[in-house]
Amino acid sequence: MAYCFIGAVYISGTGVTQDLRNASVLVHDGDVSAESRNLIYLFRQPYFNRIGTFSGQHEGLTRLDDGASMLLLDIPEDFSQTLRRGARPVAVQMLVDTSNVTMGYLASAYGQRIVDTYAQNLAQQAARRAGLDLRTLPSVENATRVWYNPNLNGHWFNAIGEWLTMMTVLAVLLPATALVRERERGTVEQLLVAPLSSMQIMVSKALAMTLVNVAGTALSVYAVMLPLGVPFAGSPWLFFATTALYVFSIAGLGLAIGAFARSSAEVGMLVILIAVPMTALSGTWTAPEAMPGWTRWGLQISPLYHFIECAYGILLRGAGPGVLWQSILMLSLLGAVAFALAWLQLRRKLS
Amino acid sequence: MNLHRVAVVAGKEWREIARDRVFLALAFALPVMWILVFGYTMTFDVQNVPFVVLDFDHSARSRDFAYRFISSRYFDFRGYLTNEHEADRLLAAAKVRLVITIPQHFERDIASGHTAQIATLIDGTFPSRAQTIQAYADSISRNYSVGVRTERVAGELGVPYERALVLMQPVHLEIRYLYNQALRSIWSVAPSLVMLTLMFVPSLLTALVVVREKENGSIYNIYSSTVTRGEFLLGKMIPSVAISYVDALVLTAIAVYYFGAPFKADLGFYLVGALLYVVCTASIGLLVSTVVRSQNAALMIASIVGIVPAIQFSGMINPIATLEGSAWVQAHLFPAMYFENIVLGSFLKGVSGRYLWINALILGGYTAVLIWVSYYVFRKRQKR
Predict the structure, then answer these.
(1) Cβ pair A276:B34 closer than 8 A
(2) Distance from CA of B230 to the nearest CA of A (A)
(3) A147 lies in a domain?
(4) Which of A105, A157, B70, B272 has the smallest set of CB atoms within 10 Å of its CB?
(5) In this complex, is the C-beta atom of A58 within 8 Å of any C-beta atom belonging to chain B?
(6) A136–chain B Cβ distance below 8 A for any pair
(7) Judgement on whether residues A121 and A165 belong to the same structural domain of the protein
């Protein structure tokens, strides 16, 4: 438990992110001139890391093949000469390993930006030589602002995502195993003769698990996320209340699984069968708009999708109940459906 | 080691698995579902980014600029807005991910040779997507900037546009994408999902094999029988490994035939590598199973401990070549990275044993160590 809420969240929050850092570059400088060196020096940290040189296409490709490098930068022999003549533009070639698509794209985009900036500086010199007043040349500048995570800190995102995933798995797994264990041990008969309705049994089990999960969440938030710098923009009360609602409603799902399964092994499989698509179809790790169209209905019936609105909304955007009421309503609704399912299944099994 | 006794243990184990029909069905259905669900939802393609434009200039220029975004296949235009609060609201509700603001006097500034400032506002909730969106937007506005400059220079010097362009953009970067030319993320994700699924299905299957007998108490039959520790563990593993290997073949087929990921290398080497990996992850589960005392704990440990490193440090999110320090070390500690190398090598890069043999060798060594530790830890009598 402690591992899930602290260890796993911490590992994710401090582990790797999908930022481009230190993309390894091998350089072939065919020209060896001041101009080519100036350009090569621009490929530097934090984004790039020049790890050496290669002498020919074949050697370079081999190094890409064995994964020693991610990029090849190839400066042609006539680089400075063509620049000086100015009769035609000169092309610098970059070969990118795109077996990881995001990294490949970002590396090429940053490379493009470096070369564009370099070209712009040359262009300004050329314009001056041509007798143009630089101050009369128009340009468009783009000022970017990023909201909710201004430094695009991937660690925040990973820590929140990991906490959501862990909590979801546990919130389904714990009630399910609790129920199936009673059946395996045979203590379920004791519950049967006890003066309790099946609904009372279920609610008490779900409540206990909700407490455990909310406590775990508090650990995740206060022991890991806040020290990592994740902001807590909204109301803590609202945050823990929606967390409890979410955990309670998917505990119903866990109880349904526990009532259906016959052994702990089956429970494990079923939980993964249900919790994993729920996480995948939620927008925890992938933005909903990037998913194919048919997943939209899947999103609507995934409780996590509605809870994420609350989690990201309260933590990062400081959203209040006015913005979130729809999500809260859907969460309650899905929870009610899950409990009804569990209740039917349990009654069928017990009678 | 008596092979007959191994076969008997394996046969008994197989009957136990096969008797639980739901479990058996899930052992095959789960990996398939896993790769399908993740294949569809874990996309790193950044396309159709919903965006709005706040155009305060209402000029031909500003519309022309906005059109650069509207016509891009990366962006999905959701309309012009008139006030900033509307934009803030859409961004907060995650209805749009990008707001482009074109200020007043945009056209006039460009015509008079000044610098026109446009502003892009990006939702940073998904940091890597936000970075990509930022890169797209930067690239569009840079191109536009070069365009207006070149127009002006061409006019002032009285030369054709192409000539002025050589002056304004003397160097350009020619990019060639290798291995996944179309930048289709599913081609990369599907093979990685084979790696991820096989990280954890075999270990989940074997995680229960020994501990189940401990919980049932039937382990005492084993303790008092003539079967040796090694025979017992080996026999226990064989059915799970067999199921997992069938899973591996099915998953690979789905990646190739259903998701269309190109398979470029030597199939024989890949199959050997997959077998080694499956045995390796199955022995992780076996070790867990010999150490813990309850099925619940075994399930938890096997399903949770294996996955985080597999996602984080396999090279699936970040290429190993970009890792440093402790992340690099951790990547090399887990088996996932070595199989990821084999998978990406075989699928996308089209390189075979010549480059990848070392990965297979390490997987084999890893497996040997795990089995040896399980053998060492597993005693034919209960600890007090």
Answers:
(1) yes
(2) 24
(3) no
(4) B70
(5) no
(6) yes
(7) no
Question: Would the CB atoms of B152 and A136 count as touching at under 8 Å?
Answer: yes
Strand A90-97, strand A71-75: pairing: antiparallel
Same structural domain for residues A111 and A181? no
CATH number of the domain that A59 lies in?
Answer: 3.40.1710.10
pLDDT at A16: 64
The pLDDT-based confidence of A28 (bands split at 50, 70, 90) is very high
Single-letter amino acid, residue B99: V
Which residues does A5 contact at the CB level (< 8 Å), separation at least 6?
Answer: A163, A166, A167, A216, A217, A219, A220, A224
Give residue-wise pLDDT tens across range B283-309: 988 998 888 888 777 877 877 666 666
Instruction: Enumerate the residues of chain A whose CB falls inside 8 A of the CB of residue B265.
Output: none
The pLDDT of residue B324 is above 50? yes
Pull the structure tokens for residue A115. 């070369």
Q: Which residues in B151-174 are b (16+ Cβ under 10 Å) and which e?
A: bbbbebeeeeeebbbbbbbbbebe
The whole domain housing A95 covers 18-136
Domains within chain B, CATH numbers bracketed: 3-43+184-377 (no CATH), 49-168 (3.40.1710.10)
pLDDT of res. B384: 46
Q: For an interface test with A, which of B322, B324, B329 has the most A Cβ atoms less than 10 Å from its Cβ?
A: B322
Do the strands B171-178 and A90-97 form a parallel or antiparallel pair, or are they unpaired? parallel
Lowest mean pLDDT among A77-81, A85-89, B71-75: A85-89
* A66 in reach of chain B (CB within 8 A): yes
Closest CB from B44, B124, B177 relative to A148: B124
> In this predicted model, what pLDDT tens digit does every residue of A157-212 receive, in sequence order?
878 888 888 888 888 888 888 888 777 777 767 776 777 777 777 788 888 888 88
Residues A192/A350, Cβ–Cβ less than 8 Å: yes
Model-level ipTM above the cut of 0.90: no
For residue A319, the chain B residue with the least C-alpha distance is B92
Q: What is the pLDDT of residues B232-257, one digit of tens each?
A: 888 889 999 999 999 999 999 999 99
**Residue B349 to chain A, least CA–CA distance (Å):** 6
Q: Which two tokens stand for residue A157?
A: 């995102």
B30–A116 C-beta distance less than 8 A: no
- Of A177, A172, A168, the C-alpha closest to A266 is A177
State the average pLDDT for chain B. Answer: 86
Residues 6+ apart with CB under 8 A from B334: B309, B310, B313, B314
Contacts of B31 (CB under 8 A, 6+ apart): B197, B198, B201, B247, B250, B251
Are A181 and A326 in the same domain? yes
Contacts of B97 in chain A (CB under 8 A): 287, 289
Q: Is there a contact between A152 and B176 if contact means CB atoms under 8 Å apart? A: no
Domain count, chain A: 2
pLDDT value, residue A350:
66
- Nearest by CB to A146, from B122, B172, B349: name it: B122
Cβ separation A99–B321 shorter than 8 A: no
In this structure, are A49 and A172 located in the same domain?
no
What average pLDDT does this structure show over B177-181? 86
Q: How far is A337 from chain B (nearest CA, A)?
A: 23
